[in-house]
Amino acid sequence: MLIEVEVVYAAVDRQLLLSVSVPTGTTVRAALLASGIGLAFPELDLAECPVGIFGKALNDSDSRPVQPGDRIEIYRPLLADPKEVRRLRAAKAAEAKARNQ
Predict the structure, then answer these.
(1) Which burial class, exposed, middle or buried, applies to 41 when counting CB atoms under 10 A from its CB (0-12, 13-18, 19+)?
(2) CA–CA distances in Å: residue 68 to residues 14, 26, 88, 100
(3) The domain containing residue 25 runs over which residues?
(4) Exposure string (b/e) for 43-75, b if CB count within 10 Å is 16 or more?
(5) Model confidence over 63-82: pLDDT tens digits?
């Protein structure tokens, strides 16, 4: 029996959403490889890239089976640590406030 899942990836300059039919019991990683998204983004290492389902990162994509309607998302590495960015922004705002008083 086949089930439908979606595979999505957003590069800096473009994004792609693919629907793929896979047999029941297919793992997340196998569905990702079967989608053919690697042809559109050859720079991706599909065997190792971080993935998630509906915004929740998976640690076990090689063993977790997909469910009908799953949206498999391929994640890019962060360019900056969000906590560090917030800390710098807060420090800059505090400095500006101190100068204005």
Answers:
(1) middle
(2) 26, 11, 43, 57
(3) 2-100
(4) ebebeebebbbeeeebeebeeeebeeebebbbe
(5) 899 999 999 999 987 677 77
CA-to-CA distance for 101 and 89, rounded, in angstroms? 19
Number of domains in the chain: 1
Q: How far apart are CA 72 and CA 78, in angstroms?
A: 18
CATH of the domain at 55: 3.10.20.30
Does pLDDT of 31 surpass 90?
Answer: yes
Average pLDDT of span 28-41: 93
Look up the pTM and report it: 0.74
